[in-house]
Specification:
With about 250 residues, the protein is of the alpha+beta class. The chain folds into two domains: about 10-75, Winged helix-like DNA-binding domain superfamily/Winged helix DNA-binding domain (Arc Repressor Mutant, subunit A, Orthogonal Bundle), CATH 1.10.10.10; about 80-245, Chorismate lyase (3-Layer(aba) Sandwich), CATH 3.40.1410. Helices cover about 30% and strands about 30% of the residues. α2 (about 35-45) crosses α3 (about 45-60). The longest helix is centred in the N-terminal third of the chain and has 14 residues, at about 10-25. It starts with 9 loop residues before the first helix and ends in a 6-residue tail after the last strand.
């Protein structure tokens, strides 16, 4: 029952109790929460209080509402993105680089849709790639899915001078992906740099990723450099924060 002398709003007490029960496994992932009427009786509060409590959990990404069915506990983050090994030549040689490496580690079925276009680099992209604004770039615009669920949006831009007459300008880049094709074309990759941030999604991103209200996204901008330091690609990724765990590891030297 709610403690009305605690000074904590009733809806927050209900949300905290439900959150604790979900964490403890009392309501496991995929299970429907008790009905609004049952929660009203259980906690001794009004329907608006229950609705506010559930909205707190929805905003936190803990539960999701299904029209006509009820409120369900969302599964925990399913994708572990380990950034040290996923871009290695060894992984690309097994055709398990980047997103395919995540799939191999977690056992989900990966799929993606790709759109190719050519456009002029804006100032931001030009700065990353160290080219003139307006220079032609190849854009690979991808939507990535895990078991059919959209889990990542990624837009890669590369100087057209490096991609012309290569499979990078095709939907299917072949085994090893675009990085393998860059190296085939005489552009050996020496290093990667990733810039990680977080923000709320744009309306288009929220729709594409099927996000519930209040769910933030993780943003990763990766730049691939040739072994002489020449930038080869800038890749802007948007990941739903409730479906990813992003990990980095490095030697203590």
């Amino acid at each position: 029952m709610v403690d009305r002398t605690s000074g904590v709003p009733a809806f927050r007490q209900v949300a905290a109790d439900l959150r604790e029960k979900i964490s403890a496994g009392h309501y496991p992932a995929g299970e429907r929460l008790p009905s609004e009427r049952e929660l009203v009786e259980s906690y001794g509060v009004s329907r608006p209080t229950i609705r506010e409590a559930v909205n707190v959990l929805r905003t936190e990404g803990i539960v999701t509402a299904e029209h006509g069915r009820g409120i369900f506990v969302r599964p925990p983050s399913a994708i572990h993105r380990l950034s040290r090994s996923r871009l290695s030549r060894e992984a690309r040689g097994r055709n398990q680089g980047a997103f395919l490496a995540d799939a191999a580690a977690r056992g989900f079925a990966p799929s993606s849709s790709v759109k190719i276009r050519f456009e002029e680099a804006d100032q931001r992209v030009a700065d990353y790639l160290r080219i003139d604004p307006g220079a032609e770039v190849t854009v690979r615009d991808r939507v990535m899915r895990a078991n059919g669920l959209v889990v990542q949006l990624a837009v890669s831009q590369l100087p057209r001078a490096f991609t012309r007459d290569t499979a990078i300008e095709q939907v299917d880049t072949g085994p090893g992906g675009a990085y393998a094709r860059l190296e085939d074309a005489g552009h050996p990759i020496g290093s990667f740099v990733e810039h990680v941030g977080a923000r709320m999604p744009t309306p288009d991103e929220a729709t594409a990723l099927q996000l519930t209200g209040g769910t933030p996204v993780v943003t990763i901008t990766r730049v691939a450099y040739q072994d002489d330091g020449t930038p080869l690609e800038v890749n802007d990724m948007v990941l739903p924060a409730d479906r990813y765990e992003v990990s980095y590891e490095w030697a203590a030297d």
